From TrEMBL:
Protein name listed in UniProt: Uncharacterized protein
Region span, Disordered: 84-131
Database matches in InterPro entries: TAT_signal
Species per Swiss-Prot/TrEMBL record: Streptomyces gossypii
Length: 410
């Protein structure tokens, strides 16, 4: 699911170039141009509108027409354009096709706001505000939502990194049998088997981020795209558009009509005798590191996730560990090619591997293929008791017992 060449914003009509650019102006500039543009539109473009069946002020569309202006989260709404010097734009690769079943699109909102901590006029007398003649500094914010359609990464290391980003414990499962997960700032939905490419499942992923650029420099910040239900609808709209274009759409389209869970789980504090994720097998010596935050994700018969994050004073939180159990068929498919063709060790059940930084096993659990997966960074590997492999073995057996499955590890 790599980067694709970018093109201009998506439009489904044949409006003149000047009019498409007008649609992307800031709200303030739109108002300034409104009277003249209206007269021009009603006059010189009347014939064009009649011929094409479009109206000069049709709403902008993004992501190959899957999203429409003012039809979802605030990023697509008109209200954000009320800000001073705010602009929204979109880019998209070619629409996915049978010959090229992958694509990438994005929507970007750029806003400039006055910086309350701006400088002075340099005259020796500090005068604040534009009325005093000050060249007031501004802060520039860029909010971006990026969606990718296509097969999951081929290389094992890239796939594990991809899994860490989307099977994070802050995400919750999509309801109504739709295979995927969603959070406020990202989500993933696995497409039907008919959309597989070279044995790898295809997926639609969504990720949001925000960058602030001011007198203190560039700062990366989290960006909440919308509610989990809104993010789910955005993903499924792109999934439906892409699958139809590729020719792998199911007879019954993916739909989410039930409420999406409001939260994924609870955060645990650090204790002297620390058992992470409320799984007895997840034991770490907390004296080996500064701070550890644990986020428990969903705990169901089809999925269980837990994420561990290192926190040190003066530094940004660092993802350090992950434990996952899945037995939803299309989520299990995400691990195809990662488990190998042999048992991970003597007396283990199923197929998998036990490596320094990750452990994985796929086994039958009451007639359902089930995957148990763990990733630990160097710090947590050193703190695992008695070892990363035994932590994984005990954790997998504990979760297997919870879902009525025979032990997978000796």
């Amino acid at each position: 699911m790599g980067a694709e060449p970018a093109h201009g914003p998506d439009h489904t009509d044949d409006r003149p170039t000047w009019l498409r650019r007008f649609g992307r102006l800031s709200r303030r500039r739109r108002l300034a141009w409104g009277g003249a543009a209206l007269a021009l539109a009603l006059g010189s473009t009347a014939v064009t509108a009649q011929a094409t069946g479009t109206w000069p002020f049709d709403k902008d569309r993004y992501c190959w027409g899957a999203w429409k202006q003012d039809s979802g989260p605030r990023l697509l709404g008109d209200a954000v354009l009320q800000r001073t010097d705010s602009e929204r734009s979109g880019t998209a690769s070619d629409v996915p096709s049978p010959d090229r079943p992958q694509g990438k699109c994005s929507v970007v909102m750029t806003s400039e706001v006055p910086d309350d901590h701006g400088g002075h006029t340099g005259t020796g007398t500090e005068q604040y505000g534009e009325e005093a003649g000050e060249a007031q500094e501004t802060l520039t914010f860029e909010s971006r939502v990026t969606v990718e359609f296509g097969p999951v990464p081929r290389k094992a290391a890239e796939r594990r990194k991809w899994l860490a980003g989307f099977l994070d414990a802050s995400a919750v499962p999509l309801p109504d049998g739709v295979p995927g997960v969603v959070a406020g700032n990202r989500g993933m939905v696995v497409l039907p088997k008919a959309c597989d490419v070279d044995g790898r499942p295809s997926a639609v992923t969504l990720a949001g981020g925000e960058t602030g650029d001011g007198h203190l420099g560039v700062v990366e910040m989290p960006f909440t795209v919308g509610s989990r239900s809104e993010v789910a609808r955005l993903m499924l709209a792109v999934a439906e558009k892409g699958m139809k274009s590729v020719g792998c759409a199911p007879e019954e389209p993916y739909r989410v009509t039930s409420p999406v869970a409001a939260t994924s789980g609870d955060a645990d504090g650090v204790r002297e005798d620390f058992t992470a994720c409320r799984i007895p097998g997840q034991r770490f010596d907390v004296g080996k590191f500064g701070g550890l935050a644990v986020q428990r994700g969903p705990v169901t018969d089809r999925m269980q996730t837990c994420s561990l994050t290192l926190r040190s004073r003066g530094t940004a939180p660092t993802p350090a560990g992950q434990f996952v159990m899945v037995r939803e068929p299309r989520l299990v498919a995400l691990f195809h090619g990662l488990t190998g063709e042999r048992a991970p060790g003597p007396d283990w059940r199923g197929k998998g591997e036990l490596k320094a930084g990750h452990q994985v096993v796929r086994a039958d659990c009451a007639g359902h293929p089930t995957v148990f997966f763990q990733q630990l960074d160097e710090t947590l590997r050193a703190a695992a008791r008695p070892s990363p492999e035994r932590v994984f073995a005990r954790s997998a057996n504990e979760v297997a017992a919870r879902i009525g499955c025979a032990a997978v590890a000796p």
